Amino acid sequence: MTGNNVTGHNLASALLAEIPAAEELVSPYRRRLDSNASLGIPAHVTVLFPFLAGDALDMTAHAELTRLFASFPRFACTLDHTDWFGENVLWLGPRDPGPFRALTELVFAAFPQCPPFAGEYAEVVPHLTVGHSRPVGELRAAEAAVRPGLPVSSSVTTVTLMTGPLDDSAPWTREAVFPLG
């Protein structure tokens, strides 16, 4: 897994529920306001980040992820509101965050060495980031622009494993896509 021209121990990984139906609405803002978009990371709700280091993404890990996700039913998702983490992060929220939380809990139970967001937050809030770490006026303008496009409905049928360099010096790549049951 050296598609990023770095060795496996220098790779970070993430498990994402891609939300392609949201791309048209959010991509013009994510390109300017979310540095992850410039790394090739699509519109998504995070299932688990950080996940395993690149050199730990072996056949055993892939087999366990395949088994886990095959056991989890596909589900519908409706992003129907904007919200904020402080004045630093603008995001879209799902009407029902339950299935995303359940996915995170499922993977964390199987990989307890990978707490969501490195254990930084007491509660994991499923969300699709529109922008972060930009002037609040730019984020508020983006919020005003995306609100009329809500709700966005999608089916979540897969979970994507992406990897990228720890220092974000190169784009992230899709390593695998796991179907939900």
SSE blueprint and pairings:
Layout: E1 11-18, H1 23-33, H2 35-38, E2 44-48, H3 59-70, E3 75-85, E4 89-94, H4 98-110, E5 128-132, H5 136-146, E6 152-156, E7 158-165, E8 173-179
Antiparallel strand pairs: 1-2, 1-7, 3-4, 3-6, 4-5, 7-8
Helix pairs in contact: 1-5, 3-4
What is the number of strand segments? 8
Order of helices and strands: EHHEHEEHEHEEE
Say which CATH homologous superfamily is assigned: Cyclic phosphodiesterase
Q: How many distinct folded domains? A: 1
Q: Strand portion, in percent?
A: 25-35%
The average pLDDT is 94
- Low-pLDDT regions: 1-7
Radius of gyration: 16 Å
Number of helices: 5
Give the CA-CA distance, first to last residue.
26 Å
Report the structural category. alpha+beta
CATH class: Alpha Beta
Placed side by side, the strands forming the largest sheet appear as 2-1-7-8
Main pleated-sheet profile: 4 strands, antiparallel
**Shape, please?**
globular
CATH architecture: Alpha-Beta Complex
Write the CATH fold name.
Cyclic Phosphodiesterase, Chain: A
Provide the helix percentage: 25-40%
